[in-house]
Amino acid sequence: MVIRSEQIEEMQEYRTDRYVEALARHLESNFPAEIAGRGLQGSKLRQAVSEGVTDAGQYNVHAASDLRLYIECIAMLSPNFDTSAEHPWAGEILRRADLGGKCKMDRINERLLFGPGGPR
After folding, report:
1. Cα gap 113→102, rounded to integer Å
2. How far apart are CA 72 and CA 68, in angstroms?
3. Is 35:75 a contact under the CB 8 Å cutoff?
4. Burial of 29 by CB count in 10 Å (0-12 exposed, 13-18 middle, 19+ buried)?
5. Average pLDDT, the chain
6. CA 107 to chain centre
7. pLDDT average, residue stretch 32-51
């Protein structure tokens, strides 16, 4: 059996669509007030999640747990938290070339949990 490149692309697209859907359901279940407050219901939410997955990849954020946190930041902070003037610290962390994706998201998580001073 030979699998053509088009078939592989279709399978990858299907997996990505399923992953985006699962992340959107996660936000609906765990951040309903936040996504409602941002007007991110239905197809708008799925679009924001899809764009978030793409954006995260540009910052070398690929692991499932790190992607989930990145997508949660869309709900907690804003859909464009990585470039927002409201949260410049997030973009500064994400743009650091000397950090891997996991380290970037660990630092963002610490900032969310402990504030600007970090853990004490």
Report:
1. 16
2. 6
3. yes
4. exposed
5. 89
6. 14
7. 94
